[in-house]
Amino acid sequence: MTISKTDGPRQLAWLTRLKRSVLLSSFGASPAAMLSAALITLFLLNAIFAPFLVPQDPSDLRSLNLTDSLKPPAWMADGVWGYPLGTDGQGRDILSAVMYGARTSLGFGLAALALASLLGIPIGLIAGYTGGFLDSVLMRVADTQLTFPPILIALLLDGIGRAVLSRSMQQSLQPLWVVLAIGVSLWPQFARLVRASTLVERGKDYILAARLVGVSRSRILALHILPNIGSPILVFAAINLSFAIVAEATLSFLGVGLPPTEPSLGTLIMTGNDFLLSGEWWMSLFPGLALMSLVMAINCLADSFQDRLHISPG
Amino acid sequence: MSCWSDMPREHHQHEAAQAQASGSSPASTRLEQAVPCVLELRHVTHYYAVRKSGLWHFSSGRRARKLRAVDHVSFTLQSGTTLSVVGESGCGKSTLARLAAGLLSPSEGVIRTGGRRLSSVRAGEINMVFQNPYAALDPRWRVRRSVSEALRPGGFLKSRRAVHDRTGECLSRVGLSPADGEKYPHQLSGGQRQRVCIARALASSPRLLICDEPTTALDVSVQAQILNLLRDLQRALGLSYLFISHDLPVVRYMSDDLAVMYLGRIVEMGPAESIFSAPRHPYTRLLLESVPDFTAMTHRRIRLAGDPPSPLDPPPGCPFHPRCPIATARCRVAKPAYTQHEDVLVACHAVEEGRGGIG
Questions:
Q1: DSSP E strand stretches across chain A
Q2: CA Rg, chain A, in Å?
Q3: Which domains are assigned to chain A?
Q4: Which among B128, B132, B140 is the nearest to A212, CB-wise?
Q5: What is the ipTM of this complex?
Q6: Which residue ranges form the domains of chain B, and what is each CATH number?
Q7: For A209, which of B98, B136, B154 is closest by C-beta distance?
Q8: pLDDT tens across A93-124, in order?
Q9: Distances (CA, A) of B261 to A156, B9, B216, B288, B329
Q10: Chain-chain contact of A212 with B103 (C-beta, under 8 angstroms)
């Protein structure tokens, strides 16, 4: 038997596995999940291609026309079809701002999630597999961490940043604080889930069989345990993506998140908030709707994955 | 049965014998070197600490209770033979298997293989076949990868081709085709999975295979196939088996020697046929009585009543006395020592006193 002969069925088997995979099969399960998947695809495409799609570059001050400021949406009396969702106080197109904002929100949510999993997954694996004293110490650290909400951490970092760093450095580091604050406040959740799954997996006989022939601890964790606890981690990550996005929006709304120079949906809602009472409702409504539909789509899809996998969140 | 002959009677006797062996009796030392036992356990004891774990409990040692899962077990397993360990669930058989495999280290006592300490043994020299073949294979790995897992860390097969060939050879040996290696565990039947587990165990070229109830999870029709496969492999490769089971007919079919365990202690040990034809310890007798025998339905049985006591709180004296039909006052106080009867060692006051019959 040659290697090339096995290549064919190997690829086929890979495809069959993908087709039969639990996560994909849940798309067909409910119309809500299908709609959510479509929405998320839309947001992802927007995130990739926004610079080519937007009617106006909101960060390019030359393209702004102050005479077009505070235009209502196109279907209203004063509306112009050049600005379908209206403009803000500087004549910035709201649709373009929302498209960029959604991109920024998704990006920062994913970055915070990546940081949380980068911290939480290894810590959970080590705690669960090693057990004993190290496990106790790591989990008490995680419990302590859980008592600090992201807003508190963000305010802390912001305060320290303002005290220690120069104003321009603090400004440029602001996005990093946001990722740090959300990522650090999320890792204990990951660590707890991974630890619990690892505890179940490590006692199984195939782990013992690997230990018997001298497979190292890191190989067992990376090649046996991590792939076998992958599905619940993925679902959990999906659920927490929406949390991360909302947390970022909250921080931006409160003014300790992303600066107005790099607006996320949260920042847009905050700036629009000032105009809300004077009747210019469109400036915060449309970013709000975008945020809501993104978060709901993620939650709905994650829920249907979760139902399929029969797992409960941390 | 030279290996039985220096079985421990009592602690001090054993130590004396050891001193003698190392000092003034070169004959016995030479004998041991000539025929190194594949597995030798000397007064192996294993405790599980039963306590609340956690950061606030680690220092409170007085809270810890010890569960003595294996209690002063000594035996030797000769090369190319099968020693079976039987007993009810919870008697410490599986702990014994894991101790012998080196997955646990004994709290007290010594385990040697081929005269060496267990810790200095090459990885995979002792390998294991597990009870549940469903849990013993990584569900996300192709069977071939699981079988060849042992071949990479050891590094004695350098080329991929050699690993590939060796894996195919192992699969063929257990009656599977090398093409089966491309399958995932869920594509195989229970019997096929157990064959894969045996192939994986063979891949590391073990001298000793520890079979922890290898047929318990299988259909009866498949059990016989697996047992015959194990026997054929033993003959062909000169393997030694430590066979853990509670299935007495299976044990009778497989074993050269037999050890009966009760509450972590070996109560009777010797050549399997001697024990099966003339059991001496009351527990062994009751255990053999409890095997369903359709040819003797009318025969009045003596039933083994009740559950074994908790190993957390073992009874004083002979651990079997609460359930023993012929226990006396002495059994409730003193732990019985091993006495030799023909080629069988028995730990029982009644047998020692010559009143073995069960009323």
A1: none
A2: 23
A3: 25-50+96-309 (1.10.3720.10)
A4: B128
A5: 0.81
A6: 2-125+206-353 (3.40.50.300), 132-205 (no CATH)
A7: B136
A8: 889 999 999 999 999 999 999 999 999 999 99
A9: 63, 16, 18, 13, 23
A10: yes
